[in-house]
Amino acid sequence: MVLTKLLLAHFIGDFLLQPNSWVKEKEKLKTGSIRFYLHILIHGVLVFLLLWNLTPWLLAIFIMVSHGTVDFIKLYAQKEDNKSSWFLIDQLLHIVTIVLVWFLVFKPRLNFTGWYENSTFWVYAVAILFITIVSGILMWEVMSKWSKSLNGS
After folding, report:
1. I need a labelling partner for 83 at 20 to 30 A (CA). Which of 29, 53, 119, 137 fits?
2. What is the Cα–Cα distance from 27 to 134, expressed in whole angstroms?
3. CA–CA–CA angle 39, 43, 44 (5° rounding)
């Protein structure tokens, strides 16, 4: 459950609590933007809030620092023509870092036997597939009627 909370903290910090104006300011001013540092701080605070425990303070600090490092690299490496690629790389690095930190700090015992009999696994598999792939295709099909009329096709 800790890993789920850490991922939720990341998604809230990167998508819910980071307005587009912050992103644009960070892209323009890079580390000269106060929003860059506020964004990193928000990630640490979210870890504390969602875990509701001050004991893993080092975990929150490490997630803040690693998040800032990844964002720093992205800000200076991305150009106008590769923004999409850097967005995906950025998110992948954040998630991999969170999983690695979780694994190193909490040392979970992973049990890969019997997963195919676990109903929760199948519910999550269906939900993830629907939310990520199926809903995107559905929206594409629903919206294509209007986008074709806008393009004059």
Report:
1. 137
2. 32
3. 120
